[in-house]
Design brief:
about 35% helix, seven-stranded mixed β-sheet, globular, alpha/beta, Rossmann fold
Amino acid sequence: MKTDEKRLKTIAITLRWEAAYRKGEHQTGEGAFLPELHTLDHDFAKALEFFGLRNGKLLEIGAGLGVQAMRYARLGFDVTAIDVSATAMEHARNRAAEESIAPGSLRFVADNILMTALQDTFDVIADRGCYATFKQWELEDYCRNVHRLLSPDGLFLLKVNAGRYKMTQPLETRFRIVQSYDTFYHGEPRQGPPAGFFILKPRPA
């Protein structure tokens, strides 16, 4: 697919997510939205504990309303949380202010990982569901950008819908799978769909 065509399709997808947030679909769980979760996802919390990670620079991809990002900040991370929807990021900022999260430890940025403007590198990158929303043709850009943003000794934590395991194959050219296991998307008040959880390390550039 040509670069201009990919960019136009990526922009169209961004607009669809923005429209979904403006319509309030995140409040009803319509479409691709996951069940609301007010605590840090168990699988991500367990991985961070196992590797003894309590601080450093963390990037969350597909942050939505920012609940997980706020939990990472509470743990002690310097968090950058991105989502394609500017509306979602505005809601997230308001939520963080209500919870008195220190502004210096958490920033919300409207950004698309497929054509990200971020230049920092991160010790941890976390994706709880965003990867699975992409089409096969988008995954090369996703993997390339995540690899660029992750520090050489960093950790990439990824949760993917169980029905889309085959989509993890593009990861293996740029990342080494340290551990993977079957789980589900934790949610409140209902449990979410089955999922796979992956702990990855970057391959040398």
